[in-house]
Amino acid sequence: MIELSELYRIARNAEQLLLPLATAPTEILVEKLKPRDEDYAAVFVGDAVKRARDGYAMMWSKPPKALGKASQTKIKAFAAQADAFATENEFSREFPGGYRTVAAQLQPDKIWLVWKLFEAGGDVGMSYDGLVWLRDRWAWFPKPWRILAVPTTN
Fold first, then answer.
1. For the chain, what is the domain count?
2. pTM value?
3. Is residue 153 part of a domain?
4. Among 70, 66, 68, which Cα is nearest to 125's?
5. Domain that holds residue 68
6. pLDDT, position 151
7. CA distances in angstroms from 77 to 30, 89, 121, 130, 152, listed in the order given
8. Which residues have C-beta within 8 Å of that of residue 19, sequence separation ≥ 6?
9. Count of CB atoms situated within 10 Å of the CB of 85
10. How many CB atoms lie within 10 A of CB 142?
11. Fewer CB within 10 A of the terminal residue: the chain, N end or C end?
12. Calpha distance 91→106 (Å, rounded)
């Protein structure tokens, strides 16, 4: 498991990338955060690789227009290694509960990030998740539990 101080450093560095992207045009957002084809096998395991590739292809075909508003000039990010998602702990509690349901489908050594954009002096804002560190860059896989959910048959 990675040390807390390293996760903190990673989160602070990510904040410097994310804050300018909050109001960036869609093409910049896509250029900086869209996963490459090879990223799926680096982030997911087993048959989750194909399900993630297919699911996120739909999302990236109509990417978000912007993440935040011009008035949201503050950001707070939290990082955790994927192997922490399997249980409730100091690393995983900042992440949505859906991460617990897909923990076994994620490469355990990857660093994931959640972040929140808010206005100066406020604590209410927009929350995001799913940024993954890939050695030299970030790729965005938001709400992986929605993408990886296996439909039930009756």
1. 1
2. 0.89
3. no
4. 68
5. 4-148
6. 55
7. 20, 17, 17, 11, 34
8. 73, 75, 117
9. 24
10. 15
11. C
12. 16
pLDDT recorded at residue 1? 65
How is residue 35 written in tokens?
A: 């996963």
β-pairing verdict for 74-81 and 138-140:
unpaired
Report yes or no on 154 lying in a domain. Answer: no
Please give the single-letter amino acid code of residue 12: R
Q: What is the pLDDT of residue 153?
A: 47
The total of other beta-carbon atoms located within 10 Å of residue 3's CB is 8
Other CB atoms within a 10 A radius of the CB of residue 33 amount to 24
Max CA separation in the chain (angstroms): 50
**Averaged pLDDT in 10-residue chunks for the chain of 154 residues:** 84 89 84 94 97 94 82 90 92 92 96 92 86 94 91 49
Q: To 10 degrees, what angle do helices 26-33 and 4-21 make?
A: 150
Residue reference for tokens 């804002």: 125
Name the token pair of 119. 């206005």
